[in-house]
Amino acid sequence: MSEAPLPRSWLYVPASRPELFPKALAGPAEAVILDLEDAVPPHAKVAARNALAALLDLPRGKPVWVRANHPATPWGESDVAALADLPVDGVRLPKSENPELVAEVAGRLRRPVHLLLESALGVENALALARSSTWVTGIALGEADLLADLAATEASALGYARGRVVSAARAAGLASPVMSVYTALDDLDGLRADTRAARAVGFFGRAVVHPRQVPIVNDAFTPTESEVRAARRIVATMRSAEDAGLGAQVDESGRFVDPAVAHQARLVLALAERDDLRTPPTADHPEDPS
Hints:
Blueprint: E1 9-14, H1 21-26, E2 31-35, H2 45-56, E3 64-67, H3 76-83, E4 90-93, H4 99-109, E5 113-117, H5 120-124, H6 126-130, E6 136-141, H7 143-149, H8 159-171, H9 188-200, E7 206-208, H10 214-220, H11 225-243, E8 249-250, E9 256-257, H12 259-274
Parallel strand pairs: 1-2, 1-7, 2-3, 3-4, 4-5, 5-6
Antiparallel strand pairs: 8-9
Helix pairs in contact: 11-12
């Protein structure tokens, strides 16, 4: 059995707003995150946690995760205890910094865990956090909190952290990180450009906080027709090189194609195939059977 494709869009829904959950399940977001943390005010956190069981009984055709409160908060310990017994697909742990604490909490949850790195210490501990437990299946940034911790106001300050989290995730054998929320809800052009840039530097998927952001994020992580055609050319060139006993070859556009370049092209084709968005193969570039 093949693994389920990675979600492109992860829609946060406040667990204190249960009426929004069925809409999220029916919408185009490919995963839903019920939020017990930032989106829920302190006075509503216990009620939100208590509402999870009923929400998770609803039929669902997509992954449903829960973002818990940090274990050191007044609500975090109870969140972990409750989530260990609920049918969630995974748990997001905010403000992760301490690998030993993560290992202890993940061992109690016994389900996939994504760690949110939201401080300078979390970023510097990225690799140790990614390797802290076999239940950790992903790490990601919480960029708004990280900017505050860095005493920075410009997104350019996040360049190091983004590279660090991508590298640490891959070094630990985890999936590419999910990109953080884009907070300017009305700036859809900015969201599109920022998401495409994130994909280009190694992120896959993005957390969103409003349904209007979902189609743009899904599109940004979908290969374009030109990307698919280029990938087919690369794969065909590599196959031709292999048939000729060569390790690499220059394609018709003058690009040097070696196994690493071909691997990247096959990733593009796999993503396009998953969404049935492939352009028809041509006689010059037939479908790659591999």
